[in-house]
Amino acid sequence: MNQDYIVPNVWSIIEEGFDKEKVKSSESLFSIGNGAMGQRANFEEHYSGHTFQGSYIAGVYYPDKTRVGWWKNGYPEYFAKVINAPSWIGIDVMVNGEALDLNTCKKVAKYKRELNMQEGWYKRSFTATLPNGQEIEVHVTRFLSLDIDEVGAIQYNVKALSGDMEVSFSPYVDSGITNEDTNWDDKFWNTTKVSFDGQLGFIEAHTMKTNFATCTFMESKLFHNGKAVALNSEASIEENKVGFNYKVSIKKGESATLHKFGGYTVSRNHEASQLVNAAKSVLEKVTTMGFDALLDKQKEAWAKIWEMSDITIDGDIKAQQGIRFNIFQLNQTYLGKDSRLNIGPKGFTGEKYGGSTYWDTEAYCIPFYMATKDQSVARSLLKYRYNHLEKAIENAKKLGFSNGAALYPMVTMNGEECHNEWEITFEEIHRNGAIAFAIYNYFRFTGDYSYIPEMGLEVLIGISRFWQQRASFSKPKNKYVILGVTGPNEYENNVNNNWYTNYLAKWCINYTLEQLGKVKDGYSDDYKRIIGMTKLTDKETEAWKKVADNMYFPFSEELDIYLQQDGFLDKELITVANLDRSQRPINQKWSWDRILRSPYIKQADTLQGFYLFEDHFTLEELEKHFDFYEPFTVHESSLSPCVHSIQAAKLDRMEQAYTFYLRTSRLDLDDYNKEVEEGLHITSMAGTWMSIVEGFGGMRVVDDKLSFTPRIPKQWKAYSFKVNFRNRILKVKVTEAGTSFDLEGTDEMSIRVNGKRVVLKAGETVSA
Amino acid sequence: MNQDYIVPNVWSIIEEGFDKEKVKSSESLFSIGNGAMGQRANFEEHYSGHTFQGSYIAGVYYPDKTRVGWWKNGYPEYFAKVINAPSWIGIDVMVNGEALDLNTCKKVAKYKRELNMQEGWYKRSFTATLPNGQEIEVHVTRFLSLDIDEVGAIQYNVKALSGDMEVSFSPYVDSGITNEDTNWDDKFWNTTKVSFDGQLGFIEAHTMKTNFATCTFMESKLFHNGKAVALNSEASIEENKVGFNYKVSIKKGESATLHKFGGYTVSRNHEASQLVNAAKSVLEKVTTMGFDALLDKQKEAWAKIWEMSDITIDGDIKAQQGIRFNIFQLNQTYLGKDSRLNIGPKGFTGEKYGGSTYWDTEAYCIPFYMATKDQSVARSLLKYRYNHLEKAIENAKKLGFSNGAALYPMVTMNGEECHNEWEITFEEIHRNGAIAFAIYNYFRFTGDYSYIPEMGLEVLIGISRFWQQRASFSKPKNKYVILGVTGPNEYENNVNNNWYTNYLAKWCINYTLEQLGKVKDGYSDDYKRIIGMTKLTDKETEAWKKVADNMYFPFSEELDIYLQQDGFLDKELITVANLDRSQRPINQKWSWDRILRSPYIKQADTLQGFYLFEDHFTLEELEKHFDFYEPFTVHESSLSPCVHSIQAAKLDRMEQAYTFYLRTSRLDLDDYNKEVEEGLHITSMAGTWMSIVEGFGGMRVVDDKLSFTPRIPKQWKAYSFKVNFRNRILKVKVTEAGTSFDLEGTDEMSIRVNGKRVVLKAGETVSA
């Protein structure tokens, strides 16, 4: 835990005081991104202390050869690594020939970092006494432009405090970087050209194997007391580096300021031969605008994002800071502009986990993007999976499935599986269900059916084929069973009849059959095309139906609950409350053997099913299952507290819901799991949004209409959020006294509040 | 399969004709060893074709850093690699300045390899036409001395066929070798000194991390037409190599012969500073004796081994060759002289699997060594585990067990676990039971109880503590269950209540309780010492008893059989006969996922329990279980056919028993699994011995007496074997007509034959 380290503030993340031990954590927390690139909060000037360098380019990865103890058939060949890209931020700073390095300064004072989430910039300021006794005051502001998303900008300001001095700035770009996380110490980057043109520097480098070509570029402007200084430094060229050196003599009290613009042009978006030219045109654009104008654009862009996606919380600064941090990071990671991209679990803040796409996207992120962006964004995310259907079929084939059965990967960059533990890759197949559910959820929320005949039905057919083949008939049970799976609770592996998985499988098949009927009736051309392509026969769908109709669900008559898996009750059922605190987190304290045999649940599993299909179960059933399973849940997955917060709120257990909310929203800010230095938990941040909107706000779609059951934690005076429901923007504000609704635009809209119908008119605030 | 490649011969393994594709396989098949060192059948002269170089020193290993996909708590730090040691065999040969290299010769004819198992030597002969047109005839004989086990000898004879010629021999030792199998391309050896003394060459090198110091040494003698030639070559010294060059001019028809003596002195047996001196004294001894005298000693030593351990089979040359190959390899691998050593699954024939000690030793090898060697050998193997008890307790502690519970490692060199798949290391815990069973078996066979109070009881207490802690109480079953295990059938992982494991656990506890009583009554000093040390209380043993008395065993009322594990009947039970042949071996054709969900059994599991505890079950029960499980068994473990051969023989299914026998005895000779080039399957060779003695011979110990139920496959006229039972040597010969028994010595002995008591008198042949 890192509690009370980050200064509470409603719009900013603030660190005060320089603590070398916190540098790596803060590098994660103060990360910036613009959907196309990202940058950990590494210092621009050289730092000789512990640091985790990270610059990332969306969609640029390396297929790192898999490492396993003992190879087994079907194992993926590689693990896609998010790779540390060439750095564009470096600016070495010297004062009278002495390097500024916060690790070696005689004194560092007034140290402050601020990540201004409202405006989308990051600033660091401090005073430093260098080993040579010179004292300076430094202010550095940095942002990655949302407006021109190939570029970032830095304003590096040095003020002379101790006397007259010569300040030297050496801005550079550098491709001599490495990954913290590699399997075989492979070289990820090959630098092909280091060049310059006047005061512009370029490094052309491509990734090994995947061959993404990139140009990392920069240009700087120098100012003396705010007045531009002409530059004509000679470039210094090294094997993996190009830099310039700019000196300026300033008097005590005066300032020297460098504006550095840099970033990447990438072969994903340009002809590989045109990367330098593309970089030049970006630089021309931004240097013409200048730092301040570019920053103004940034503020405008973020204002627009916040306009739609902000959630306000009154009376609880930490809760407010938490939710905004979550929303801010999600928007830094993915903006929905590019259907080749997805939402990596660490976004642009670290290397861990690799790959960019997990089931997190469908199960946690889509609701957030659906409600706070244009619906094209969610459609883009669904299309991503459609584009990977062929690879999902190949993946299933590798494991022995046939006839177009599709198993989507657990982790992927390009549709290929790239995780490498058999108990996850081969067995955590419920991910397939999340993808089908997202199709259902997308239509339910947006009302846009067109995705299904155009793309979704093919995905659903592949998935249903998989489930039918994956299930097998048990003679003793006289039912179809699904053997050898890992459910969402990864603390049980290779179990039989994970209730959540079986439930999803049955639902997937039935939903697919239903859509087949709908598409046949309403979109006969699509239907013909799809049937022609998939060669789906009635005989096959009958086989599906047989599996769905006869699916087995482990159930305890005595407890009147569904069992997480066949053997759950054979375990020693000691609740978490009766587990010695010193034993937690069990994933750090216990052997894998002990964890597997224990009843402890990493994240919602049966309760995840109750979340997805809540209308299939009564409140009493939910309560029974919550009361049984939550006491065994250790919430050691970042994806756990949000679902539990929603379920607790539904059960009117507001204290518990609030505790879960704080845990999910401040997971990284307060470093609950002591690992924030590795990067942030991006995907679970969408779960935080759900825990307010769906949990406290009780928002659902019922019969094509929005429905709310608002509740408010007693710690809050009020909270508000906005949703875009079928292109109508609704603002919801909840106070203890009641809830008010504001519909934007000129339309009217009927909703349900606490079960009662309410008609909203645009421009009128309606309280309910 | 490699069927019909090796020439059938009752005493020799013979290859005829040079086939570059077979070089690596033959390097395995013609391997030699003497218990202290081993050598693959690599050529002495340079060979530029595909080869797998391997020289091995018993007990010298490297702790190669473990490689896993995702680290989990409790994983072992390293995987002990059997390492390729510096080579002592190299002799580069030149004829008129042209190198002899079988890969580049114009012609190679009359190529023959012979491994003479009766006398313990390996010979290679051929004629070769070199690129320069010179034709020579070559005979090379090599052996590793059983008598002086630090040394090997080579006689390299070149005869001039095409005319007069100059033959040059360059014998050398070389530490510039690598492993085929490394995890991180670590350097395993550090060469510290390359030296010579006259015509003697030495390389001192030590292993990294484990720091085993070794001296690899050599000395040569040269002969012209059998007459010694004085040598005074200058040594050539390289970083990792020392060599000499000896030239001799011979006329057409004449021969040049080099005798090379070489080997290792190792810090396991000498002061590290004295290795060169020790080497010199070995060389002095053997060069004084000369090659022929040393070879004579070798023949004597092997004659002694065969005198006791030979099995003869009349009327079936391939079966005869198979069993002798198995017995020969076992004796090459382990002779029982050194209780720090054990029997590696690949012996000295390859690197795969790593480590030296698996449960193979207790479950398969001990019966062979018990019956064909002095009983001190088996005791030595038991003592090996006693010496590792503390490490086994540490190992269990790592996994969360306490109070002296011991979990022996799955794979080890020094008592530490060094395998690294959780489903094996953490879950294949039945190995603990095999170790307890070996203690029982040792006493049953040898009658030597002393091991139990002296050492065995402590081992049994550690093991019983483990089982009691590892079992947990299932409320629904109202029994103790053992969750999350892998049984001997490694094609099922993380199952609940593997019958074999549960059965062993219960038996272990009961056996330990019984021994506690016996030691208390008969060895009160030992009892006091042990209780004092282990702090075992009545309360604890009551807890053990409760577990043993209430152990759960999955059972099908309908089928009237014990189930391999809780979920076995939920699988789709399609027999192997109904599986398309193209799908086998499934471990090469199927994904791990598919294998795990299939009913296919890698090796005896429930039937392994019926083998160990046959007197607990009726013949009818065995038959029922055999008929149920064997049809699902794919025998993809080398340890499978032998147990099935024994069980089939017991059920009087001699055709099946014979087929299994051939498969186990000629597994490597006929390369059933297409992998012999990686090395031989040493430990399963002891299973071959069991399949004759226990299977066909029906040998058991019943009430302290040997018992036989002899059967003979119809393909055989007769077979015979010898056993050392409690220091009395009995020879058994079985023909279709009946069985005869010869007791050596001066004693008499009562046995049972087909259930009837027979009294044998030494010196008299008794037929029954």
Radius of gyration of chain A: 27 Å
The termini of chain A sit apart by 40 Å
Give the strand content of chain A: 15-25%
Largest interface, C-beta within 8 A = A-B, 49 and 50 residues
Q: Which parts of chain A are unreliable, with pLDDT below 50 for 5 consecutive residues or more?
A: none
How many alpha or pi helices of chain A?
20
What do the pLDDT scores of chain A average to? 96
Globally, the shape of chain A reads: globular
The SS-based structural class of chain A is alpha+beta
Q: Summarize the biggest pleated sheet of chain A.
A: 10 strands, antiparallel
Counting copies of identical and different chains, the oligomeric state is homodimer
Helicity range of the residues of chain A? 25-40%
Strand segment tally of chain A: 34
